[in-house]
């Protein structure tokens, strides 16, 4: 499983997602848009991410990527040959975590063994979530059913709930 963070603002959320992704066995995290990276463009460590990630940012591959939509388009393309897979391609099943008219409860997703091997899990901005352009590209939109009065969870918590459910399917 790879993880795509779309405009996640908080360094603490990014660090927490790195730590959870490591625990879940994720292979890579793509940091898109304004999402901060563990190392800045000057080669300096982001201490706020490191403090929360506890070293996971050093073990999990990550890549800064400008536009989330372009990344998703790239990951979705079917692989043409074995070397295409190594080069970052593709044939990923894109799963977004968001509340929408198209969303289904995360526990109800049915995945084939082939789909389970190539999942890209997308989470969005803490306030705005994922925009329609990203949701249109998703193969499935997953939501976490809410029972309380608050209609949302912290992005890192939501990621953890869904990621662990997916790896156990």
Characterise the protein shown here.
Helix content is 37%, strand content 18%. The chain is globular, with a radius of gyration of 15 Å. The protein has a seven-stranded parallel beta sheet, sandwiched between helices. The protein contains eight helices and seven strands; from the N terminus they run E-H-E-H-H-E-H-H-E-E-H-E-H-E-H. The chain is an alpha/beta fold and 169 residues long. The longest helix is centred in the first third of the chain and has 14 residues, at 11-24. Strand 1, helix 1 (11-24) and strand 2 form a beta-alpha-beta unit. It has a single domain, classed as Alpha/beta knot (3-Layer(aba) Sandwich), CATH 3.40.1280.10.
Number of extended strands: 7
Which CATH class is shown?
Alpha Beta
Structural class, judged by helices and strands? Answer: alpha/beta
How far is it from the N-terminal to the C-terminal residue, by CA?
13 Å
CATH architecture, please?
3-Layer(aba) Sandwich
Strand order of the largest sheet: 3-2-1-6-4-7-5
CATH topology: Alpha/beta knot
């Amino acid at each position: 499983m790879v993880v795509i963070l779309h405009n996640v603002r908080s360094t603490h959320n990014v660090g927490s997602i790195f730590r959870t992704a490591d625990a879940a066995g994720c292979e890579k995290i793509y940091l898109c848009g304004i999402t901060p990276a563990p190392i800045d463009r000057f080669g300096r460590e982001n201490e706020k991410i490191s403090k929360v990630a506890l070293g996971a940012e050093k073990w999990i591959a990550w890549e800064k990527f400008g536009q989330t939509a372009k990344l998703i388009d790239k990951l979705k393309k079917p692989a043409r040959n074995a070397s295409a897979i190594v080069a970052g391609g593709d044939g990923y099943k894109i799963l977004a975590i968001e509340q929408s008219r198209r969303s289904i409860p995360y526990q109800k997703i049915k995945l084939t063994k082939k789909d389970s091997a190539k999942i890209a899990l997308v989470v969005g901005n803490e306030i705005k979530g994922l925009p329609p352009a990203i949701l249109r590209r998703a193969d499935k939109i997953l939501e976490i059913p809410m029972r309380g009065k608050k209609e949302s969870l912290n992005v890192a918590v939501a990621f953890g709930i869904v990621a662990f459910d997916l790896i156990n399917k």
